Amino acid sequence: MISDIDMDYVSEMLYDWRSVLPASILSEAELINKEEQDRYDSSESFAVGFYLRSLNLTAKYPIITIPGVISTGLESWYVDDQPNACATKANFRQRLWGSWSMIKAMFMDKQCWLNQICLDPETGMDPPGAKLRAAQGFEASDFFITGYWIWNKLLENLAALHYDPNNMFSAAYDWRLAYSDIEKRDHYFTRMKTVIEHNLKFTGEKTILVSHSMGSQIAFYFMKWVEAEGYGNGGKRWVNDHIEAFVDISGCLLGTPKSIVALMSGEMRDTVQLNPLAVYGLEKFFSRSERAYMLRTFGGIPSMIPKGGSVVWGGIDSAPDDAPGQNNTFGKFIAFEKTIGELSSKNLTVEGAMETLFKVSPEWFKKRVLENYSWGLATTTKQLKANEKDPSKWTNPLEVALPYAPDMKLYHFYGIGKPTERSYWYEEIDNKTMFNLDLTIDKHRADSVLLGEGDGTISLLTHSICHIWKRPNSIYNPGGSKVTIVEMKHEPDLFDMRGGAKTAEHVDILGRGELNEMVIRVAAGKGDEIPDRIISNIEQYVEKMGI
């Protein structure tokens, strides 16, 4: 398709050949070049959708969108007046996450807000005197707060192809909960299964899952849950028979380094993907220890802990994505300049950082995390099959294989070119009683955060699994599902606060013109026309892993 041409290259070619080519060809080529540039340089509402509609593309497959972590608004449904309860009937359906009400609540009574947003540390469910639920419908994730869009650009362009609530469903969820608890409390995966079966029955078409960030892990977990006996009970052919394609947008299928430091010491500014105003509120009104406690009560956050251990993320002496001549290897995930006590007595790999995280965290945190998640690596078909019956493995595509779904297509669209947190310099706190923390990022160093490749939030290495799935006869893709991978370079518009139509930043990529076009082509049944595009060195990194 014409959108696959590098238009900067076309412009240079036209200039170089202006004295050779006939004027009529030059004129037509320049017109095509201008149309392409205008389309991709424009972030106007509906522009991509209307363009593709003019090419006779139209809605074909039903779509389910799955938002990422923090993208879904959370609203209060607490109506039982009890002594000492912060939540009241006056707050009914007020958004305490994802609105100006959140900022106001932080400012007016931070402890009350914290009591409502945190989950019960022992049960992982609603604490006494609070009841937050995920907002529903497209309003749940179209905007974070007024004016700050998340999914709205994509919804607009899909609407231009005649998508509406009859053939498109937003699968919003309470991202605070562990995946098993999302089903236990809200029957989330059961409801998703019902919607997909309804789509097939009434439209005759399979469904496309379009997910972003942590939503891609939710989608993968769902595909394992829905077929498993005693859970979704769909059987071994359900995914193949019901899901046309899995579109993974900037997914964190193998986790991301930021999650560990967020849980370890409440680091926030670059560690959690938030609207800048929300980050300001959390940093302004809450200490690092309060932030660490809050995040530890959220059972969903540990799902983003890096998977694959030293094989994927490196050992103490080297990492697959180390640059030639790099002074400090990324494999030395957390390094200490000074030894204060036992915690800072040695540098840590990702695996060592996990062990240390459990040391400095409450026992309830360790117990819940180990019950729900796993970060290992299976290297044989026998191991992968043995893991199928263990739900804690269903969040790790290196420990359980994709469903046997030879007819399902996989599309992985992600950004590169924006420096992303990869490893850290930490220090152990001498007076722990004063700070109520054991460790924190070393504030005395200018290079306390080492940056690698990614989209500003998600490390490039997390996309390794896409390339592993793509390999011929991959044991992690037993059905040989076709895999298409498109990397998008971060080329932001400096005069646009959200980066414009060529941004590849983790959240703003949802408004990128090219991303919107590719999603629409998949939805319209034209996904086979999208070619692979690999710009980074990730294939070399995967080779070094030796998986």
TrEMBL record:
Q: Which GO terms describe its cellular component?
A: cortical endoplasmic reticulum; lipid droplet; nuclear inner membrane; perinuclear endoplasmic reticulum
InterPro entries per record: AB_hydrolase_fold, LACT/PDAT_acylTrfase
Q: Name one GO molecular function term.
A: O-acyltransferase activity
| Stored Gene3D superfamilies | alpha/beta hydrolase
What GO biological process terms does the UniProt entry carry, in alphabetical order? ceramide metabolic process; lipid droplet formation; phospholipid homeostasis; triglyceride biosynthetic process
Q: What is this protein called in UniProt?
A: Phospholipid:diacylglycerol acyltransferase
Give the source species.
Tortispora caseinolytica NRRL Y-17796
